[in-house]
């Protein structure tokens, strides 16, 4: 990345009326947190994608913070946890630049190369820059090699030592392996994304949900109540997901659950930011005011901003 362009990027912070006006710390209303958002620029020269993704079509072509702020305006969401986008792989530069440009507004979940001997030092270095979690792609196929992966062991141990969360994008088939690692590393903060993608094929399967609920036995394991657009009937108001939300609330307690939109994918077609948020604020009568406060703020605040 060219340093002069980076300085120009950071130098626009003071002039950015979008960020300051919408996410002003003294704005009235709740100070909620969106625990799962991806952002990326349209400039592929300044922020080139990984060689492994150069031939892939990126949709949408860009989703910068200004677009996110426009969707969040008036919702009470003032802070956001950014999740490193896959097509940048281990280059967290853009996420870090956004976090620096809007201090206090963003937390981060990065991606590191666990094949490198210095992966623990990289995690610690990023942790000092407020990257408080690290994403693992934990599909059924990928977890097969975890036991023989020294870098995986290092990541989980470093997570426990430094209070850095291991954030698993997993599926129901991989949950037994994730369960084993949570049991082995009980002191490591763990976050499971998107209900472990139960319902991505259109049906919520109780036997698969039970595997997810079993992770509640580990006090440091947390869950993202997120990506409503992609699960079950995949249509607002998403109330078909209500029973799954109730079961994870009952198992984990709302103090270990956090809401995430999964923008920009939550704001495509018929799906809107407000519809995702209203699932928690309006559609589920079994959620108490305390539950809502935990899911919309406290849990994510503890893990990614404290």
Question: Can you characterise this structure?
Answer:
With 306 residues, this protein is of the alpha/beta class. The protein has a single domain (34-304), classed as Metal-dependent hydrolases (TIM Barrel, Alpha-Beta Barrel). Helix content is 36%, strand content 15%. The protein is built from eleven helices and eight strands. It has helices at 3-11, 17-22, 65-72, 93-101, 119-128, 150-162, 175-184, 206-213, 242-252, 273-283, 289-304; strands at 32-37, 77-83, 106-110, 131-138, 165-170, 190-192, 221-226, 257-260. It has an eight-stranded parallel sheet with strand order 1-2-3-4-5-6-7-8. Helix 6 links the parallel strand 4 and strand 5 (165-170). The chain is globular, with a radius of gyration of 18 Å.
What is the element string, with H for helices and E for strands? HHEHEHEHEHEHEHEHEHH
For the largest sheet, list the strands in their spatial order. Answer: 1-2-3-4-5-6-7-8
What's the overall geometry? globular
Kindly give the count of domains.
1
CATH fold node name? TIM Barrel
Please describe the structure with a list of short key phrases separated by commas or semicolons:
8-stranded parallel sheet; TIM Barrel; disordered N terminus; 306 residues; alpha/beta
Furnish the topology, listing elements before pairings:
Elements: H1 3-11, H2 17-22, E1 32-37, H3 65-72, E2 77-83, H4 93-101, E3 106-110, H5 119-128, E4 131-138, H6 150-162, E5 165-170, H7 175-184, E6 190-192, H8 206-213, E7 221-226, H9 242-252, E8 257-260, H10 273-283, H11 289-304
Parallel strand pairs: 1-2, 2-3, 3-4, 4-5, 5-6, 6-7, 7-8
């Amino acid at each position: 990345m060219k340093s002069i362009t980076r300085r120009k990027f950071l130098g626009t912070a003071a002039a950015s009326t979008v960020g300051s006006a919408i996410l002003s710390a003294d704005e009235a209303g709740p100070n909620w947190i969106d625990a799962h958002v991806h952002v990326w620029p349209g400039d592929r020269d300044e922020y080139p994608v990984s060689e492994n993704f150069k031939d892939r079509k990126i949709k949408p072509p860009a989703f910068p913070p200004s677009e996110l702020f426009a969707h969040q305006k008036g919702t009470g969401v003032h802070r956001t946890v950014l999740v490193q986008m896959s097509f940048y792989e281990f280059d967290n530069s853009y996420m870090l630049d956004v976090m620096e440009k809007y201090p206090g507004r963003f937390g981060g979940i990065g991606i590191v190369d666990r094949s490198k001997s210095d992966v623990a030092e990289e995690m610690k270095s990023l942790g000092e820059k407020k990257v408080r979690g690290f994403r693992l792609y934990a599909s059924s196929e990928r977890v097969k090699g975890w036991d023989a992966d020294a870098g995986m062991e290092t990541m989980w141990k470093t997570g426990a030592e430094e209070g850095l969360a291991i954030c698993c994008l997993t599926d129901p088939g991989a949950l037994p392996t994730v369960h084993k690692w949570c049991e082995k590393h009980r002191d490591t903060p763990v976050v499971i994304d998107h209900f472990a993608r139960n319902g991505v094929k259109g049906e919520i399967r109780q036997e698969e949900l039970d595997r997810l609920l079993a992770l509640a036995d580990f006090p440091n394991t947390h869950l993202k109540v997120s990506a409503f657009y992609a699960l079950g009937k995949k249509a607002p108001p998403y109330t078909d997901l209500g029973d799954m939300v109730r079961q994870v609330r009952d198992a984990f307690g709302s103090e270990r659950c956090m809401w995430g939109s999964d923008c920009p994918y939550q704001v495509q077609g018929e799906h809107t930011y407000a519809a995702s948020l209203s699932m928690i604020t309006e559609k589920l009568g079994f959620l108490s005011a305390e539950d809502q406060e935990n899911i919309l703020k406290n849990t994510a605040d503890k893990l990614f901003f404290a």
